[in-house]
Amino acid sequence: MKPIADTLANGSILLDTDGKPVNAHGPGVMYHQGVYYLFGEIKKGKTWLVPGQNWEDYRVSAGGISCYSSTDLKHWKNRGIALKPEVGDPGNDLDTGRVIERPKVIYNARTKKFVMWMHIDKNDYNYSRGGIAISDNPVGPYQYLGSIRPNNQMLRDMTLYKDDDGKAYLIYSSEDNNTMHVCQLSDDYLKPTTTYVRIFENKRRESPSIFKNKGKYYLITSGCSGWSPNAASYAVADHVMGPWKEEGNPCKGANAEVTFFSQGAFVLPIVSQPGKYIFMGDLWNKTDLEKSAYLWLPLRINDGKVEIYNP
Ligand code: DGJ
């Protein structure tokens, strides 16, 4: 059988089962009871450049978090808005004028709640907090609980990881994007604990995505260049908290040095094909963010080395 991931490579607009473009940027996927749930940023409307910044601070209205579901990873049904934004309430974390990015959802078997974490920010990206929301249903609606700086540390690009033993971890760019942190969450996944480590010190890494294969943990990150593509890099560890050993760029072939013009958001294990993964990247269109597309590529592990090709 042809590996599912090999049939997914695109880079064009991904359409849902209604024929509409999937609006789920900076995505994360949760597999629950035979269904894949895709969550992402809803980007809609005009893109503008925030004045007075010395980097490419392009912004678009924060449209909340979308949810799509699929059983075959090819047909995605729009399940509506999982987390609604607030309109005309600039003091609110979910106001459309804020930044709501990189949502990730995991299920807590003890509390029976679906828990979403996301990056919440303001125009200049200095608010740098993790937002938390919960729901009784995978598709939502999610109830927003508020935001936090874990251990008083900045949080920007982030991902969540639930390990086989039920412990969950938040992995995020911190210290003004200079250093990443891995922080263990409380048993209900709603709060950071004081157990955290600093990794890739002063390496300026963003867009973490993590997965486990044969007892080893793999963490892929991008460099830090706004919306413009750069080289990915990956690291390997025996535990989520590290130590992490850096292994270099997993991308191979033409344009590997710019991650095939994408930026990673998530690595999805294909449940029906153990050992096979999809590297899910965003193809940012920085001057028209709503038009950003996706690049989903097969990711292989060859003798312990991660390899991503753009066939
Ligand atoms: C790169 C990050 O990975 C994106 O999620 C977004 O925050 C942009 N920077 C903003 O420039």
Compile the SSE list and pairings.
Elements: E1 25-32, E2 35-43, E3 48-49, E4 58-59, E5 62-70, E6 77-83, E7 99-108, E8 113-121, E9 129-135, E10 143-148, E11 158-162, E12 168-174, E13 179-185, E14 192-199, E15 206-213, E16 216-222, E17 233-237, E18 245-248, E19 251-252, E20 263-269, E21 277-283, E22 293-302, E23 305-309
Parallel strand pairs: 19-23
Antiparallel strand pairs: 1-2, 2-5, 3-4, 5-6, 7-8, 8-9, 9-10, 11-12, 12-13, 13-14, 15-16, 16-17, 17-18, 20-21, 21-22, 22-23
Bound molecules: (2R,3S,4R,5S)-2-(hydroxymethyl)piperidine-3,4,5-triol.
The protein's oligomeric status is single chain
Averaging pLDDT over every residue, what do you get?
A: 95
Enumerate the distinct ligands.
(2R,3S,4R,5S)-2-(hydroxymethyl)piperidine-3,4,5-triol
CATH topology category name: Tachylectin-2, Chain A
Number of domains: 1
Order of helices and strands: EEEEEEEEEEEEEEEEEEEEEEE
Number of helices: 0
Q: What's the CATH C level? A: Mainly Beta
Name the poorly predicted regions.
Answer: 1-7
Strand content: over 45%
What would you call the shape?
globular
Could you give a short account of the major beta sheet?
5 strands, mixed
Features:
Tachylectin-2, Chain A; mainly beta; single chain; 5-stranded mixed β-sheet; binds (2R,3S,4R,5S)-2-(hydroxymethyl)piperidine-3,4,5-triol
